[in-house]
Amino acid sequence: xxxxxxxxxxxxxxxxxxxxxxxxxxxxxxxxxxxxxxxxxxxxxxxxxxxxxxxxxxxxxxxxxxxxxxxxxxxxxxxxxxxxxxxxxxxxxxxxxxxxxxxxxxxxxxxxxxxxxxxxxxxxxxxxxxxxxxxxxxxxxxxxxxxxxxxxxxxxxx
Length: 158
Ligand SMILES: [Ca+2]
Known about the structure:
The chain has helices spanning 2-21, 49-56, 111-121, 130-135, 145-155; strands at 34-35, 38-41, 62-64, 82-87, 90-99. By secondary structure, the protein is of the alpha+beta class. The chain has a 5-stranded mixed β-sheet. The chain starts with a helix and ends with a helix. Residues 136, 138, 140, 142-144, 147 line the site of calcium ion.
């Protein structure tokens, strides 16, 4: 009987240590408009890091810039940033963030983004990564003058 109690105590103590370690650290993608590990923000002019963390429902999550540096909660989040969960100081799970129309990846929608899209459509500019997704506003798989026009209209709040 004494042995059993001791065994139970050991199991409980072990559980206390194990549980926090095995805590769920995946990002709940269902809390976002998310596809292929990209979270999309549409119809927004900018998004703050704190908003994304709040929406994730995981207060331990962080927003990282494209270089892996943690953004402060008040920072606006550029396209190409990541929402990440950390485990023992390393990234456990991450999804990339795309603010539609933020082609320049500075976290804001301005005429500059329209210009980049227009120049890309005319083969005068190279775009890569999420810029290509952020620029295809009408989501027809191509970046054209029509997209540039939509971006410009948004930047002008029309
Ligand atoms: Ca398009």
